[in-house]
Write a structure and sequence with these properties.
The longest helix is centred in the first third of the chain and has 21 residues. Helix content is 61%, strand content 0%. With 184 residues, the protein is mainly α. It has a single domain, classed as Hypothetical protein af1432. The protein is built from 9 helices and no strands. Helix 6 packs across helix 8.
Length: 184
């Protein structure tokens, strides 16, 4: 029998496989962003979208070289729903996964995984060190600087916006708004 964890259960599962606060905070951030977008596009499934966001990097800390592949084993051993597992694995499409994002939720996860990192990096450069006073144009400016947060894959963000058929500035603005709901 398959299992769909609540966001609270997803955090507990995540913490069994991740100890570094950075990874846990990233997962919670992506989960919050996914929940925000679900409130706009799929209101009755907010918990589901958030849990997918929380669990998306479940294997990264322990198996960085097998990211998205080991998540299948981990999540299947926990009897997690196959659709949820597929969605989680699709966020690494073209990098560490052959699973192409198909649903709107999967395309969004693909885009915001990298985007949240770029937004946090940009926010940390500001005097306030948070997203409350951050605007999309500042993120776009930093995005154009290849040396800034160089490990963040800008092409994934651009491809994600294209998959979503969403203007990049709108995607960034919505993602910032979502991150503001966390009060950071």
């Amino acid at each position: 029998m398959s299992y769909i964890p609540t966001p609270a259960e997803a955090i507990l599962i995540l913490k069994k496989y991740n100890e570094q606060q950075f990874h846990i905070q990233h997962a919670i951030t992506v989960g919050a962003v996914m929940r925000y977008f679900a409130s706009l596009y799929d209101n009755q499934n907010q918990d589901y979208w958030e849990s997918v966001g929380i669990l998306h990097d479940i294997d990264y800390e322990l198996y960085p070289d097998e990211h998205c592949r080991k998540s299948f084993d981990i999540l299947r051993d926990l009897s997690i729903d196959e659709k949820m597992i597929r969605s989680i694995a699709s966020h690494g499409y073209g990098i560490c996964s052959d699973i192409k994002p198909e649903s709107y939720m999967e395309k969004l996860l693909y885009a915001v995984d990298e985007l949240t990192g770029l937004i946090w990096a940009t926010a940390l450069m500001r005097p306030s060190k948070n997203v409350m006073d951050l605007e999309a144009k500042s993120v776009i400016k930093k995005m154009r600087q290849p040396s800034f947060a160089a490990s963040i894959n800008r092409q994934v963000i651009l491809d994600g916006a294209e998959m979503l058929e969403m203007d990049l500035e709108k995607l960034i603005t919505f993602t910032i708004e979502a991150m503001r709901t966390m009060g950071q």
